[in-house]
Amino acid sequence: MTPTDSTRFASQTVHVPLSERSYDISIGTGNLAEVGRWITSLRSVTHAVLISDDHVARHYLEPVSESLKSEGIRVTKLVVPAGEPSKSVATSQELWEKALADRVDRKSSVVALGGGVIGDLAGFIAATMTRGLDFFQIPTTLLAQVDSSVGGKVGINLPAAKNIVGCFWQPRGVLIDTAVLETLPKREYLSGLAEVVKYGVILDPEFFEYLEANVQPILDRDATVLQKIVARSCELKAQVVAEDERETTGLRAILNYGHTYCHALETVSGYGEYLHGEAVAVGMLCASRLGEKLGVFAPEATERQHKLLTALGLPVDVPKLDEAAILSAMQRDKKVEHGKLRFIVPHCIGKVVLTPDVPQDVAMQAWTDGYAS
Amino acid sequence: MTPTDSTRFASQTVHVPLSERSYDISIGTGNLAEVGRWITSLRSVTHAVLISDDHVARHYLEPVSESLKSEGIRVTKLVVPAGEPSKSVATSQELWEKALADRVDRKSSVVALGGGVIGDLAGFIAATMTRGLDFFQIPTTLLAQVDSSVGGKVGINLPAAKNIVGCFWQPRGVLIDTAVLETLPKREYLSGLAEVVKYGVILDPEFFEYLEANVQPILDRDATVLQKIVARSCELKAQVVAEDERETTGLRAILNYGHTYCHALETVSGYGEYLHGEAVAVGMLCASRLGEKLGVFAPEATERQHKLLTALGLPVDVPKLDEAAILSAMQRDKKVEHGKLRFIVPHCIGKVVLTPDVPQDVAMQAWTDGYAS
Ligand SMILES: NC(=O)c1ccc[n+]([C@@H]2O[C@H](COP(=O)([O-])OP(=O)(O)OC[C@H]3O[C@@H](n4cnc5c(N)ncnc54)[C@H](O)[C@@H]3O)[C@@H](O)[C@H]2O)c1
Ligand SMILES: NC(=O)c1ccc[n+]([C@@H]2O[C@H](COP(=O)([O-])OP(=O)(O)OC[C@H]3O[C@@H](n4cnc5c(N)ncnc54)[C@H](O)[C@@H]3O)[C@@H](O)[C@H]2O)c1
Ligand SMILES: [Zn+2]
Ligand SMILES: [Zn+2]
């Protein structure tokens, strides 16, 4: 497929403005095979450490590697087992050592080919190998395309806490090929949609309407619609990140809409029971009901989210779990003061507000009200 | 001892100008016990992760910890075994986990109390824990006071390479108490002097003369003279670092004067045989002889370095080692092109020049000419 092939969809660029760390996200369909030309258009790369997981590698490692090689780039392929446990100190050590054994140096680049696990892990390797290598991302899950590949957070887990070791390390460029989502398991795909819905609720009522109007093509992974929702999601997240790159002003907190409930649900149900986006869906509805209880959000707006998330095949009911455990998980998630919790609460579709002083009992009512009736 | 105690030496400040990462190095004698007030004058610190090694901790952990606590700062004390092997992935993992277990969060600070090993290791923890914590350094070896605590390079070793994993992470402040050098073993102290001499040769002929004129007080660790040489060394390194913070323009390379030979000597003699500064002393003289051979440096200037280093108790003779091994170590140190090597070559005391095309045989003659006669 040549770049002028008329069957191709035009690719689209989202600029992420971060002063000297600014970069572009290039979004297309079928552009994976052009990664070599894309990367050399951004930087003169002679050696790439290409990091992937074994699921993704099966489908896409060779085309990406061949495309890089065709531009004269030497490629070190490093494949780790798929799944969250690879975001570890042990895997990092293995990658550092293997990259070094294959003659990595300060001019090498790191390319992440995979979902959020690979993006976070490879980004951490890029941030720390020889005190920082150029980093390129090719996100292959919907979650990674619309969320984890934007914002520069990279890192790994410790047994006692997720994402606790890491850096802010911006990529030099992100290439998104929405066609790779064809091979993504359905549950993973639907899970990614929850974050897409989130962007509509927190920032963009028109985008939310667009999603409501396009449920079927979204479920069909229609190329045109996918490109639109991925691009708009990246744009919205990039706006927020640009205003608060290192999470210091507090602005970036709005991206955590639904996430205090989500994290409590993930923790108490046991990691793995819910995919992240599934827990986000349940959590957003809790935060919506919380908005109602605080008198700032209308029940119709909760209803619209409920309807959209249901149509997209996402869970909406709160499962029956130990309520004391949920409360204490929420308390740990966001440092509490004097029995008050901090939440991102919606005021209307398109606008959320950080609300620092939510009484615990009200927060818990918004949880228990979500039990299946 | 109160801050107005007349027996105290005035403390002195060296500013390191790095735009929004600028900070001050505060240099004094007996100021260690004031670390609590110093740190709170810089940032509002409520929790400090204080990292040290078991040699240094024996003398200085309690005074530092008590001073921090007296300012209401909660202190997590983490002590690792003294020595280079602590600059490892395994020790990092241990420190990350222990800091986390003692409730580190994004508002915590890391304080390094020790030599270059502790500075590099603790700095790496600071750079990576919760994506970056405020970092404060209290260097306790001469090498750390004049060299490793300035410049923002932090990191750890892999079995196959030193300092290969790390970041650039600037401290918020550095506190130097030259009185702690009293307990430093003599060989460590002398070793640190080699880097001090280096600053004179590469940047400051008057400072070099000052060193020549003050050999005995330097050997006596005289407080006034120590403060002067530490402050001037920090100033000179800070100037270079400010012009090339992330080692991208090549300017920072002049700090490597003598270091290509030094690294070859360290590698081939086996790590641990020479202390770093000892190998620097031998290496600087090789680089000086190289300058002579290239016709840009005068034999008298080599002679002055030889005399000063000898007077300071540093080794000056090149040991008999496998010459092929030395050459190949130098080739690996600085990527060679077509049999040419890159060296920092002196043109006069106070000025060095990066010389990219030194023939290998000339480089080796400057080495073998240094054999004890
Ligand atoms: N850095 C950030 O800002 C950020 C934001 C959100 C989430 N995250 C992190 O992202 C991670 C979750 O990411 P994820 O949901 O992408 O999980 P993932 O990377 O584990 O991918 C999910 C599964 O899909 C497979 N897969 C990926 N792409 C595929 C494709 N195109 N075809 C077939 N299979 C494919 C993977 O092998 C894996 O089995 C978590 O570790 C989370 O902490 C990071
Ligand atoms: N980051 C940089 O820019 C940079 C520059 C140069 C060197 N380094 C690193 O620095 C390290 C070497 O540093 P170093 O020479 O300070 O070694 P070190 O930290 O191992 O200290 C040397 C010895 O002195 C002991 N010690 C330290 N202070 C003491 C005191 N006041 N009293 C008694 N004993 C004391 C230590 O416990 C240790 O046994 C190497 O790992 C090197 O890579 C880093
Ligand atoms: Zn999320
Ligand atoms: Zn040195």
TrEMBL record, chains A, B:
Keywords tagged on the record: Amino-acid biosynthesis, Aromatic amino acid biosynthesis, Cobalt, Cytoplasm, Lyase, Metal-binding, NAD, Nucleotide-binding, Zinc
Catalytic activity, as annotated: 7-phospho-2-dehydro-3-deoxy-D-arabino-heptonate = 3-dehydroquinate + phosphate
Residues bound to NAD(+): 116-120, 140-141, 153, 162
Cofactors: NAD(+); Zn(2+); Co(2+)
Molecular function in Gene Ontology: 3-dehydroquinate synthase activity; metal ion binding; nucleotide binding
UniProt-listed GO biological process terms: amino acid biosynthetic process; aromatic amino acid family biosynthetic process; chorismate biosynthetic process
Pathway: Metabolic intermediate biosynthesis; chorismate biosynthesis; chorismate from D-erythrose 4-phosphate and phosphoenolpyruvate: step 2/7
EC number per UniProt: 4.2.3.4
Record domain 3-dehydroquinate synthase N-terminal: where: 78-189
GO cellular component, one term: cytoplasm
Binding positions (Zn(2+)): 195, 259, 276
Enzyme class, spelled out: lyase
Annotated cofactor note: Binds 1 divalent metal cation per subunit. Can use either Co(2+) or Zn(2+).
Domain 3-dehydroquinate synthase C-terminal intervals: 192-336
Record CDD domains: DHQS (cd08195)
Signal peptide limits: none
The organism's place on the tree of life at top rank: Bacteria
Localization (cell): Cytoplasm
PANTHER family the record matches: 3-DEHYDROQUINATE SYNTHASE, 3-DEHYDROQUINATE SYNTHASE, CHLOROPLASTIC
HAMAP family: DHQ_synthase (MF_00110)
Protein family membership: Belongs to the sugar phosphate cyclases superfamily. Dehydroquinate synthase family.
Cited function: Catalyzes the conversion of 3-deoxy-D-arabino-heptulosonate 7-phosphate (DAHP) to dehydroquinate (DHQ).
Protein name: 3-dehydroquinate synthase
Organism: Bremerella volcania
